[in-house]
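Hello Y.,

Per our agreement to keep a running log of every chain we model this quarter, I'm adding this entry. I've kept the format consistent with earlier entries: sequence first, then predicted structure.
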Amino acid sequence: MANIDIGSDEDLHQTMMMKPKRKGLQLTNLPKDILCSILSRLPIKEAVRTSILLEHWKHLWRCHSNLEFSLRSMFPGPRTNGPNDVRPWKDVFIERVDAVLQQHSGAGVDNIQFQAPCDDEHGDRIEGWVRFATASKTKQLILDFSATHHIEQHPYKIDLRLLDDSKSSHLQSIKLCSVSLKVPADFKGFRNLKWIFLADTNITDGDLHHLVSNCSGILEFLGIAGCGMLRRLHISHLSNKLKHLQVYDCRLLQAMELNFGLVKLEYRGPSVLLSPPGSLLLADICIKLEGICTNSLEYMFTKLGHNVPRLEILTLRCREGKVWDSLFLASTFCASLFNIS
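Predicted structure for the entry above:
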């Protein structure tokens, strides 16, 4: 077989240099705002790393609009997760968050999240994060200080005045988990807030009513989970536009008074009473009862329909077989679609 001469390396290099270069859009030639938008789709840790690629990319990450800080994202490698091993990771996490926020431009942040088992010991640092969020006009804020293991700690006492309209009129969505929550008397409310989720907080009946009543009538979603001090959920402000309510695992809850145009209710927990007849406009209810009894079933099948005259879908989830003993009562119920699982 004849040998094929492909020439020397020098000849090959000259040939390649003589070939016309293909013209096209180069990543490095994109406008700064587009590059910032691309970097904002990367985790903040990876976005910071791009600063070493090119000289004029050195500061691009500082316009990142999607700041998500969590132990998982900042320490993706294997690590121990026991309660005695959290502290070292937590301290490093706080230092890294502070370092990023100090170098960030502080403008154009749409979403900012802090997810780590922090507590009131780090209150000054957390308050600095909250102030950064409000100063950057963020639209979505998540403070999730839940711990994967039981850890003796004092929850961070959040001052809602740092987030109300006197400080942040751009906030549209907020999630608060494992914080101590007290609504001050001079709380100014949320003018543009559409979405609230509260989990594992010590909020009381009165504070929750005060909080929701000061959302200027545009709140569309309210989620409550594991709030152990709630006994009666009273949300009857006439200007409310709330459409979707989630209530999970509030063990002491006894009743819900929901006098507004609610469309969807998701509930998990012990049996509770709903508001008086004719007050609800619900169309979709999903209920998962714990410790279900015949009385609660009778209430749902004979009285709930009068309270919720527009109900179209009722999804009931329970484990105990006694639900079937009361199904004959369903003939009096007004729902057009009834699911039991």
